[in-house]
From TrEMBL:
It comes from the Bacteria. Residues 119-143 are annotated as: Disordered. The lineage of its organism: Bacteria, Bacillati, Actinomycetota, Actinomycetes, Mycobacteriales. This is Lipid droplet-associated protein. InterPro entries: LipDrop-assoc (IPR047728).
Length: 219
């Protein structure tokens, strides 16, 4: 088999590569902005990481140079630095506040009593009986005064007119009175109205009689 020279093979491969890249050019052109942005972001992150690592190394150098041991000032003393003082002989340390009241004298029960109670207790010890209270007589109750009420004068009797007796007006209802209105004269109506006003003064009866009198007078 005939094999072409090396340069011819390289030229043929370059031509094929150019054709393939030309075919992929539309897709690469569409992805080019995204690829460029991602490359820029990656480069920026790498630069930030590199700068941060340099700053950390610089901090370590300054800490080594400026971390000299400081001497403790004379006024800065703590409880741990003071020597322990020996406890005085014959004295015991008090561990609670209840020990402060151990040496105080105890007060007797009579000291806490009031003056009146102490006096009564001393009198009872001397066999003296309690003083008896004398009840004061209560003031006499006042007798109720009776008021004399005078009886009112009896009201004068009202005579029943003849028309009221004739139709038994005292036991008459409103419906019965309405049925007999047309049979009564003006004098009878006036007598019944006057009698009603001076006795029971029932509103339906007074209104009915007044309206009937006005109707009769208008005729």
């Amino acid at each position: 088999m005939f094999r072409p020279p090396f340069l011819a093979r390289v030229a043929a491969g370059a031509a094929v590569y150019a054709i393939e890249e030309t075919r992929r050019l539309p897709t690469a052109a569409m992805n080019l902005p995204i690829t460029a942005i991602s490359q820029v972001l990656q480069t920026t992150m790498h630069v930030q990481q590199f700068v941060t690592s340099l700053a950390l190394k610089g901090d370590a150098v300054f800490e080594r140079l400026g971390n000299a041991p400081q001497e403790q000032p004379e006024w800065a003393t703590f409880d741990e630095d003071l020597p322990d003082e020996p406890a005085p002989s014959g004295a015991t340390a008090r561990t609670s506040r209840f020990d402060l009241y151990a040496d105080e004298p105890e007060s007797s029960a009579f000291d806490t009593l009031p003056a009146d109670a102490a006096t009564r207790a001393s009198e009872r010890n001397g066999h003296t009986g309690p003083a008896q209270l004398v009840d004061e007589p209560e003031s006499a109750e006042r007798e109720p005064q009776l008021e004399i009420v005078r009886a009112a004068d009896p009201a004068p009797e009202i005579s029943e007119p003849e028309v009221a007796t004739r139709y038994d007006y005292a036991n008459m209802t409103v419906a019965q009175l309405r049925a007999r209105l047309r049979m009564l004269s003006l004098e009878d109506l006036t007598a019944l109205l006057d009698y009603e006003q001076r006795t029971l003064a029932r509103a339906p009866f007074v209104t009915m009689l007044t309206n009937r009198i006005a109707t009769v007078q208008a005729q």
